[in-house]
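Running this now, will post back.
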Amino acid sequence: MTTVGIYIDGPNMERGLWNSGDIPILERIGTLFVEYGSTLGQVVEGRVFVDEDTVWKTDRTRENYQRHGFILVESKSFRYIDPKTKRVVFGKSLTDPSMHCAIVDRLHDEDCPDIFIVATGDKDITIVLDYIYEHGKNASVIGEANSLSNYLVSKCDALGFGCHILQLVNRSMKAKKAGKVPSVESSALELRVTDAEGQPVSMEHYKKERDLRSDKLNPNNIAYWRSRGYSERPPDWERRTRKKRKR
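Update: finished.
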């Protein structure tokens, strides 16, 4: 009998699915993970790693996790003073290292799951994937489409692990008017990336689009300035870019 363990980076999934508008998935996320895990084997454990500052976007998410027996593992979140508002706010937390350590520690148990379903889009989980591989176990990574690291996708390919994308398809206004948006019950783990019209695109195209989007958010990259109108560019933007590239 193949056993399956599900380990979820709670804040990462909350943020990604909420920002992308995939609320139906977010509210049924525990159900979806268990259903997917059951196709791989018998789900024997499920943990959701959160921090003390976690604010659920919708209470249905937490309720759905708990309904399926997921254990919520809370970690420390660190505070700092915002220099602008002078208020004490929460910053980095120990959610990621807490999940990483839990998985690595589990690998040394006799009843360790045969397959780890790891829900996150962060590339720092790749170190843990190496440990899973070295211990002769399998893994399947699941991340929200817009927050899934390219390096993480490549790492999964190199190790022969599954890497799935969690998103609703056919979410565009055109699709909604045509009545093609899937119901909450049919929302599932998609093994493909889609464009705004719900049409599948290749992983190579997806990676290029993600890289370009990342470059457009980086002031040290020429794509950042080219993506903005002339009115938003400083007079010396070309000089600044050349200077950054030399460094």
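The chain has eleven helices and eleven strands. More later if anyone needs it.
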